[in-house]
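Q:
Just now I want nothing more than another pair of eyes on a protein record. Here is the record:
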Amino acid sequence: MKKLSKIFILTLVLVMLFGTVNALAFESYETYTYSIDGEPLKSPAAYDASQSLTSVPMGITQEKFGGKALKGATDIVTDDAANVYIADKDNNRIVVLNKYYSCIHIIDGFTDKSGNWQTFNKPQGVFVTSSLGGSTEQSLIYICDTLNMRIVVFDRDFNYVRTLDEPKSALLRENSFKPMAIAVDLYGRLFITSTECNEGVIVMSKEGDFTGFIGAQKADYSIIDIIWRRFQTKEQREQSGRNVSIAYNNITVDSDGFVYATTDGIKPDLQIGAIKSKNSDYSPIKKLNSAGAEIMKRNGFFDPGGEVMVSTMSDSKGASKIIDVAIGRENSWSILDSKRSRIFTYDQNGNLLFAFGDIGDQLGNGEDLVAITYHEVDGITYLLTLDNANETAGGFKITVYSPTEYCDTIMSALHNQNEHLYSEAILYWQDVLTRNNNFDLAYIGIGKALYSQEKYEEAMEMLKGAYETETYSKAFAAIRKNVIGSWVLIVILVGVIALIVGMLKFFGWAKKKNKLTSLKVGRKTYVEELIYAFHLWLHPFDGFWDLKHEQRGSVRAGSTIMGITILAFFYQAVGQGYTFNPRENYSTIIVQILSITVPVMLWCVGNWCLTTLFDGEGSFKDIYVATTYSLAPLPLLIIISTILTNVMTVGEGSMVNLLVTLGYIWVAFLLFFGTLVTHDYSLSKNILTVVGTIAAMVVIMFVAILFSNLVVKMVTFVSAIISEIGNRL
């Protein structure tokens, strides 16, 4: 009996071990999202690769279909009958598969209205419109006959309908109409990207008339280009503009008629910079309305343009190369990064739902992905990729990805959220969190649902963990509104009034004290020197004169003011409200000391070095005292603005910024007139002195950095010599 138990336990362990190995082997790629700091966070698989099909199992190589395997395929789309269409460019045809991925038809030409047989020449794109209840007029197949410079239209029974030739327009350059991708909205408007067109997306009516361009990409001129254009003729400038503009490479349209267009021609440094800045000008994906305005929501941590960590040692491929876009369920959409054979899926607000895929020949990975599309079959939405696999792997192939339960749960949560069914949405988002507690969008979804249910405090708690300041601010505003209607408001108002009255009394006392001190003969006390700053705020001319000639200030009082300024900035660093510091980034007192002391000393040294050469009357001590006294208004405004961040919303942040900006302007104003009075300069000479002082500060910093680098190199050299001598002894 004991022996049988041991055998049973050993067998169970082996089964579990082999099961684990197989499961790990099946996952040939990782699925992940990104944290707010740009760190990848592993998540459960959103799609499982269920099968991979080449031309032979799809039946494309059968004799009745021409006996040719896919060659140079560039595009893949589906229709509402679950058929699949592939633009087989190098074979000059469109391959049609049924929902089981078996070839049912080949479109390799047509008989035109004159009875002549026409063939395609490198067709790169295909699009199929919805049947809309069986309407033949709206259910059409559009083929980009690229090198023949035309769009050929068929009905869903593969009968030729019409040809839309290159449109005639003064705005469209000759021979620039080489369509490579096409999308058609519900009204029959055609949106076309062309290999030779840099002016934006070409828009045509359903009759084939050219109506204009939309979404023209921003030209990325360098400084040298801008200077050089000053000396160019009008014709040269126009030609230069065309050369640097960026063409779109792919396009699709969603059910609302909004156009999604991709490009892979943006300069890598500009695209990488747009990742964090979320600058739509240099994003590889744009969402355009019918007027061509960019309306993409970019509410995620980063721009929805592919890979984020592109400058690390683990990923040296650089910025993503986006070559296709597909519309998925619940207004989600996916883009394809051909550099990494990776797919990034976002929601309608630009939040990353998941990213997956990698380069390789294992099932689920891609060797050279060229296109993606969604494929709805019997209520299940699959994801298809078209892969330019190597010849040993059978040539081009289609990989079919099945949505996992994790993916379906996310889509169900988005569905309920879009339908305003917040109670149900919370349940699905909670289910997502049980599978992936690093999924920030789930916290945001729950927080927004709780906000809609007027559970503001609970909503704030959920939103705080996901850095969602906009809805958090709305919930805070609602709580604040409730507080205003209660007795708490009375307490706050009494406190604010008492504070204002106290400050007014203090300023009045300071004014009287300064007036009495002005009549005092002899050395002033430390308190009198410190209080004098309140007079200097509003009376800079006579204030700085008395500061120097009447000895109303001192180094010790000036140093105290600088110390108070340091403490004020330290309080700002640690005391801001969550809305204004969602990442809760704090700095130490040492950092604040350096951030205030270094600029002050640089200004003093630079000003002293310059004014000694230009007949300045102020000593280094006079400059230091005038500079530190000029800081006096800043601490008060910094403290007030920091307090306000704890009671204000994001929309009211302009008031906080205004106070801080006012403080800096006030300090600059005092510093300017302090320099003028201290050195007894004229206005024009003082302006030159201030500009020269700033230049001197830059020079001093440069020399200091150069010297520190030299010292480091010397220390490294000496250390290396000592180490070498030690090794030889």
Remarks:
- The chain has a mean pLDDT of 85.
- Residues 425-484 form one domain.
- The two ends are 70 Å apart (CA to CA).
